[in-house]
Amino acid sequence: MLSVDQGVLDRLDKVIVLLNLASRQQIEAARREVLADPISAALIDVMNDEWVGAADLRRRVAASTGQSQGPVSRRLSQLVSQGWVASSGSGGNIRYRATGA
Length: 101
Prior knowledge:
Mean pLDDT: 90
CATH superfamily of the largest domain: Winged helix-like DNA-binding domain superfamily/Winged helix DNA-binding domain
Shape: flat
Oligomer: single chain
Number of helices: 5
Largest sheet: 3 strands, antiparallel
Radius of gyration: 16 Å
Helix content: 55-70%
Number of domains: 2
Strand order of the largest sheet: 1-3-2
CATH architecture of the largest domain: Orthogonal Bundle
Order of helices and strands: HHHEHHEE
CATH class of the largest domain: Mainly Alpha
């Protein structure tokens, strides 16, 4: 296991806070843009800070938005690549969670 000095972690937390403060307007604008898209908003809403299995997530969002699972999968991939959503697992055991970015 990697050992990390608590002082280093505290400094990194401060850097993150400062970067968030400095970029607050850009982050909020990006968040509004993501949430303006019905599929993206539904994906984030379904995850609700919980890990959700890929198949269940796609099915629920497709049903709530009236879209097929193809566009839902593509949007989910975009959100992962942009850092709005985290993924865990592999194969048939992939799960997703909104990061709150």
